[in-house]
Each structure stands twice: as structure tokens, then as C-alpha cells.
Specification:
278 residues, alpha+beta, 6-stranded antiparallel sheet, two-stranded antiparallel sheet, 6 helices
């Protein structure tokens, strides 16, 4: 039987593969199996990614501090999974360039609209001046709204809006002649004559009294009141980041009406000015 089996294989021309051939066949089968697995994984991932919507978002290429201006080289665009929760993110770096960072932005963070806003623009009818601010200014960034408060009482500040007169001061009524409390002497010629013939010492005394009152008022305006403050500007907009000038004073550029700016320029050398964020 063995003789016939061996004779039959030889008659068909079939030869047993060598060891080298068997190794080559085994390696080919392994490579084909790995290729099939890779293709299966690739098509599976393609199927999953096609079912998930993506969107373009803007991310930071480096850390950006609060209050800094965002430049083009600080940004890059990435693809992220779309979601209603990400509706406020920026989708173009052109929309972010030039904005002011409102918070500290870490490297790689996606930038949303509440995290940056446009630089403030000086509005029509406003002017911008550098104001010496006392106290900490680390929390102020361009675009903030502040009020300016002086450390002295309002009587030491010129050009303030009209205030109600004190209770002990009354406007002088020019319609009532001097020396006629009831106003009836205007109809009496003799009384008028007597008034014209009266000595001038009384008028001079009144003038001296008025001069003394005016002088006392000016001295009161030039002397700050202890323990009092005065609102100098009710609303101003920060248009520049705080910086230290050549004299070592911390100054901040603020936009405000011209009359308020003139008031600040007149008093900032005489009293500390504080900024209260609104």
C-alpha cells in the first residue's frame, strides 16, 4: 500500500513544499490577516465619524493673560464635535484677532465669546485722558465702566454740577430796594431821596462783608474736608491698560465727557482719585 501511495504522488507531479516555502506561506497569511483587520477598523471608524457632526473652533496656541490683546499668532483652528453647548465658540480666527481677553486663557483652550470682547472705542463727544488712580488697578481692563471718587469733600472741587444752596444762604432779591423790607418805599419819593442821601458807610460795610464771605468760600473750596469723599465722574470707560508713568504713578486711560475731564485734570494733582468698578 505504501508503495502504491508513493507511486501515485509521483505520477501526479505533486512535491512536498520545503521548509523555506512553508515559512513564506505562513508570513503571507499573517500579513493578509493583519491587512484585513486594519481595513475593518478603518471602515468602522469612518462609519462612526460620519455619524458625528463636527465644527471648526478657535483655540489658543499659547497662554493669554486677562486684559491682553489677542493677536493672530495666538490662535489656531481645530475641529471639535458639534454640540448646542458649544454654540458660543468662535469659528474663525479673524473674529477673535484684536479682541481683549476677559479671563486667563490657557494653551489649547477653546475660545468662546464671553472670554473675549472688542476693544473700547472713544464715543462721539467724549475725550480720553490719563488719570492717576490710587489703590489697586489690577482688576481694571479696557472696556470696564468705572466711577471716579476723590478723597476730599466736594467743597474742594471746582466746576462740579450745581448743588442745592445751604439752608443758611438765600439768593438776594434785587427787586426789593435796599432798606425797604416791605417794598412800599419804592412808591414814596421822599423815602427814595432819603435813601440816596444816606451815608455810603453802610454800603461799604456790606461790600466788605460780601468780600469776606467770598474769600471764606474760596478758602473752603481750597481746603479738603477730612473723612469725606466726592464723586468726580459718575461714568467713565477704561480705554487702556493701567501702566506706570515716568514719575512712578499708576495711570489709566479713561474716556469721559470733556467737562468731567477738565475737572479731573484740575484736581488730580491735589487729591488721590479712586476708581470704583460699576
Amino acid at each position: 500500500m505504501n508503495l502504491f501511495h508513493h507511486t501515485g504522488k509521483q505520477s501526479l507531479g505533486v512535491k512536498k513544499p520545503t521548509l523555506r516555502q512553508r515559512r513564506t506561506i505562513r508570513q503571507t497569511r499573517t500579513m493578509l490577516a493583519a491587512l484585513c483587520v486594519g481595513l475593518a477598523v478603518f471602515f468602522a471608524l469612518q462609519s462612526i465619524s460620519s455619524s458625528i457632526a463636527t465644527k471648526t473652533a478657535v483655540a489658543a496656541t499659547r497662554a493669554i493673560k486677562r486684559g491682553q490683546t489677542i493677536h493672530a499668532d495666538d490662535l489656531k483652528t481645530v475641529q471639535i464635535a458639534d454640540s448646542p453647548a458649544l454654540a458660543s465658540v468662535f469659528s474663525s480666527d479673524a473674529d477673535v484677532k484684536g479682541l481683549i481677553a476677559q479671563v486667563n486663557i490657557e494653551t489649547g483652550s477653546i475660545i468662546a465669546r464671553p472670554m473675549a470682547r472688542a476693544s473700547p472705542v472713544i464715543g462721539h463727544g467724549l475725550t480720553a485722558i490719563d488719570v492717576k488712580i490710587s489703590g489697586s488697578t489690577n482688576g481694571l481692563i479696557p472696556g470696564d465702566k468705572v466711577s471716579l471718587v476723590g478723597s476730599a469733600g466736594c467743597e474742594a472741587v471746582p466746576n462740579l454740577p450745581a448743588q442745592n444752596p445751604p439752608a443758611n444762604q438765600h439768593p438776594k432779591d434785587d427787586s426789593t430796594p435796599r432798606g425797604s423790607p416791605d417794598g412800599n418805599d419804592s412808591e414814596n419819593g421822599e423815602a427814595s431821596k432819603n435813601q440816596s442821601d444816606a451815608p455810603e458807610s453802610d454800603d461799604k460795610g456790606n461790600d466788605d462783608g460780601n468780600d469776606d464771605a467770598a474769600r471764606a468760600s474760596n478758602e473752603a473750596m481750597a481746603t479738603p474736608s477730612d473723612g469725606q469723599t466726592c464723586t468726580l465722574v459718575r461714568l467713565a470707560t477704561v480705554t487702556g491698560s493701567p501702566h506706570r508713568d515716568d514719575g512712578g504713578n499708576v495711570t489709566t486711560q479713561l474716556a469721559m465727557p470733556p467737562q468731567d475731564a477738565a475737572r479731573i485734570m484740575a484736581v488730580q494733582e491735589r487729591m488721590p482719585i479712586m476708581a470704583a468698578k460699576l
